[in-house]
Design a protein that fits this description.
This protein has one domain: Glycosyl hydrolase domain, family 43 (Tachylectin-2, Chain A, 5 Propeller), CATH 2.115.10.20. Strand 6 and strand 7 form a beta hairpin. The mean pLDDT is 96. The strands form seven sheets. Strands 19, 20, 21, 22, 23 and 27 form a six-stranded antiparallel beta sheet that branches. A four-stranded antiparallel beta sheet has the order 1-26-25-24. It has a four-stranded antiparallel beta sheet with strand order 2-3-9-10, with no helix packed on it. It starts with 5 loop residues before the first strand and ends in a 5-residue tail after the last strand. It is mostly beta strands and 356 residues long. The chain is globular, with a radius of gyration of 19 Å. It binds alpha-D-mannopyranose. The site of alpha-D-mannopyranose has 11 residues, from strand 2 and strand 11.
């Protein structure tokens, strides 16, 4: 397998012990999957902080929010025959699914893109209302005009959906609620309108017919989405055979819209790949990498809360128009970064279609 990521020697940039818990009495279990953006001459990350109580030998315990914003701790005996805790991320109990951690989003910033610290005076974003009681996760941040659009996974017993908040100053936010209903996640809005319309990737999951594929849709206002179409599917026998999902907003290049995405196989090995869309009509997929461009390899990517994962939903394109720093969650526990050359990624694309 190919791996063209130039990992930062400073990795992991952040680990759970680096941030205090947001909720008293909780422990930070994981820092992961940051949205990334420029603001106020700095590089910022909106990190997913996943928390749970200190674990007891005999019980699995995890927090759940109530609709009024208060929190309760669920406790299940580890030897309860109705408990299925095979996956570190989810619990199946008495026919219902829960998350083992409760996530919120925290802002950190940096002058150099390597050393990040918490941004004093900027609020954390937490789940609110009945559609976010299991938390909010994996936020993409798209900057369009003077507005930042935050699209994240809103989880509750009602399902896994795409929630949106917008802000101009990172201190006050407008909550647009759920913009795409369950089951859907991995939504990233293009940072430029095309022929007057907003475009976004998203990832519905079909249980029977269909699968975990990347879809594209358009919108007149960036909030209401329609004209959905399926653009990128899983590929039998390849590294992305079980699921695919978009990363951050695609990068506009001379060849088209370049998107970095994650894919996983049945063994839950999460790698990154890339695809290219027509610049004028992003419904047209021009090319896709056959092999991944990044594969879990470093110790901090192999061993962690959920090992063998590199997952990205945030990057920064540098002024040379070639270097992209991809910020990513490693093993669902650490925040890391790696540089890629856009030209090099493009050299691995296999064309199936040529722009008209
Ligand atoms: C899912 C999500 C992500 C997570 C990956 C890998 O896609 O829960 O947040 O990083 O799985 O575990």
């Amino acid at each position: 397998m190919s791996d063209i990521a130039k990992r930062f020697v400073q990795n992991p940039l952040l680990k759970p012990a680096d941030l205090p818990p947001g909720i008293e009495g909780m422990q930070v279990a994981c820092l992961l999957n940051p949205g990334v953006f420029r603001f106020d001459n700095k590089i910022w990350m909106l990190i997913r902080v996943a928390e749970r109580p200190v674990q007891n030998e005999n019980f699995i315990s995890f927090p759940v929010l109530k609709e009024d914003g208060s929190m309760e701790i669920m406790e299940i005996k580890k030897d309860d025959p109705e408990l299925n805790a095979d996956d570190a991320r989810v619990i199946r109990y008495k026919g219902a699914d829960y998350l083992t951690t409760l996530s919120h989003l925290r802002l950190v910033n940096s002058e150099d893109g390597i050393h990040f610290k918490e941004a004093a005076g900027y609020p954390a974003l937490c789940g609110s209302g009945m559609l976010e009681t299991f938390g909010i996760e994996d936020c993409r941040v798209s900057h369009i005009g003077d507005t930042y659009y935050l699209t994240y996974t809103a989880v509750s017993e009602n399902g896994v959906a795409v929630g949106m908040r917008t802000t101009k100053d990172w201190k006050t936010f407008t909550n647009e609620g759920v913009i795409i209903p369950p089951h859907n996640k991995d939504c990233a809005i293009f940072e430029e309108k095309i022929h007057g319309k907003y475009y976004a990737f998203h990832r519905p999951s079909s249980v029977e017919i269909g699968g975990n594929y990347i879809w594209l849709s358009s919108s007149p206002d960036g909030i209401h989405w329609g004209k959905h179409t399926c653009i990128i599917k899983t590929r039998p026998g390849l590294w992305d055979s079980a699921r695919v999902g978009a990363g951050a907003a695609p990068i506009k290049t001379g060849k088209g819209w370049l998107a970095i995405y994650h894919g996983a196989d049945k063994g839950h090995l999460y790698c990154l790949g890339a695809f290219l869309l027509d610049v004028n009509n992003p419904e047209i997929v021009l090319a896709r990498t056959e092999q991944p461009i990044m594969v879990p390899a470093a110790d901090y990517e192999i061993h962690g809360f959920f090992g063998k994962v590199v997952f990205t939903n945030g990057h920064i394109v540098h002024n040379d128009n070639d270097t992209v720093t991809v910020y990513y969650g490693a093993a669902d526990e650490f925040i890391c970064a790696a540089n890629f050359s856009i030209r090099e990624i493009c050299s691995y694309l296999k064309y199936t279609h040529y722009a008209e």
